Fold these 2 entries.
Entry 1:
Amino acid sequence: MSPIGCFRRWASPLKKLQHKHKLLIASSFTITTTTTTTADKGEKPSRPFPPPIRVSLTESAGRGVFATRSIGSGDLIHTAKSLLSHPSLSLLHTVCYFCLRIKTTSISIDQAVFFCSEECREHSKGFYEIEKKADWSAFDEQCRMRGLKYPLLVKRLACMVLSGIASSDSLDILQPASLSPGMIVQMEEEFGSLRYTLTKAGIMDDQMAFLTKQWYTGVLARIRINAFRIELVGGSYEDLLLSAAASVEAEAAVGNAVYMLPSFYNHDCDPNVHIVWIDNVDARLKALRNIETDEELRICYIDASMNHDARQALLFEGFGFQCNCLRCLSGD
Ligand SMILES: [Zn+2]
Ligand SMILES: [Zn+2]
């Protein structure tokens, strides 16, 4: 097992390396929205809102995130709310269905899923009302059998769109993965299962007009290279792992989530920023060392303790690019 809290993202920002022409945002803008600097747990952003970053084009890797002033080692640069999240299937009764917080009470709740608070229940109301109408057992089983996590995120987005709380183009700004014909065939099967489940639940065709094969594969292609695997560093995480050890199916990750701004960070095997999750899906981007004004901020998409060849293989296979960071170039 990797160090707890180690950042991993099983998806790939080949975006930055290969698809510059597809950039959907202006070449440079300063972040003024989607983040908050109100942090708890005694962490203080070093300066007030807005966060000290801008998103601009890099010389060779598409868009990237840059510091707009010097940032001190250990500083919280910004936080980010997820656009989309879903717990691991094996943990539906153990982590909050909305924010992925681990259940601390042993009281069992006679419900299919667990919500940690009224607030989370309220936030979930829209998509959960739609979800509850359908029988997801076949869809979930398909995900379980094939070890798939991302269709669950597409399912959630579809239900969010159906309930009117999200737009069907919410993820369009994110870079999509290149898909092989084999992947597309599998995705089309998943699409069929999702559409069938919703149809059986009485959702009308006109409500589902957005839910086409093309939409499904487009969303999944974006999720593949932009979803973060969430491992919490907060207190009860150790307990979860202990109890999870009893269950063959249980996973170390509490779930997966998609964010906007964190997806714009490029990769480095010797990163200057890391992303951490304390006790729920809210992400924190923190400086790992002193950063100069205009320096590019980068995170590590994989376990940085792996050796050069293992890193290159994983980055290429999972993320679709060859890493040319200084550490890789030095052969380390
Ligand atoms: Zn919650
Ligand atoms: Zn590298």
Entry 2:
Amino acid sequence: MSAETQQRGKDPKDSIIRMDRLCNLSREKSYDHYELFDWPETVDEKSFLMSPQLLSVAETSFVDELTHEQMVKLSHYEQYNYSSLNTHGERELIIDVIDRMHTPKYEIFTEYMHHLVEEENAHLWFFAQFCKRYGVLYQPKKIVLPSSFPDDVNDFLVFARLMIFEEIVVYFNKVMSTDPCLPKIVRDINRTHFVDESRHIAFGRDIVGVLYHCINFSSHGDEKEMRLNISNYIKAYINGMLRLFYPLHAYTDAGIPDPYEFRSKLMKSPQRHGFHQKIVSKQVAFFLKRDILMEESLNTGETIGVL
Ligand SMILES: [Fe+2]
Ligand SMILES: [Fe+2]
């Protein structure tokens, strides 16, 4: 990264210091994921498995319309959906990270990328274990996005997607890590993930800023158009991520009558917009501050958080 970064006026020394600090923290906090948790034989079918305030029905009239038993069952399958998203989402994202390790552009980030990949490997294992031991590991769900960007833009988008994904999942981790109504294994998994992801997000915020700075806009045609395309992509990815938290397969498995209609009503519910804003407000502010998200893109088409 150093030569290219210096050419475009950004001093890499700050990133080097931050990566060193993150590497040290990862070494200090390392653990054996195979031995870390006490896995109970079963999880109580009568207990919530996901915090009620995180369910896709939270803050809507469905909270009063569903019985307690239906809410508990929904919490089980939304937890399996959430844990499956973590498994497949991180697996797909780290493939792109591994692809870039030990290439000149990523010289100052590669050491930390090894820690990130190692930690994500642990996360994939324990989220998948949780699903397979107690419920179901759902198959991956795709977010459909435009894919034809120049290489340097793709490099930026890889780490932007990773950061967006991680900032959304840690919101859920943070709440579940201390929720006394959840089984201990759920709190433990979410606390472990929250601690690791806090470092990944610090890395993400650094590398995303650097890689955007490294895009050679003058070689990609109309600069304003390319910046707008990137901004629209970021907006579409955030909304695509939020849609994954309205899982038809989980509603079906939880026995919700007419799951299509249920999902459609929830996604259109204005009460859900406030919840989405809470989840994404920090990352939206990050992208806006760096002019990566542009007002023109925010003011046209779909709005962030309104599905
Ligand atoms: Fe993770
Ligand atoms: Fe991560």
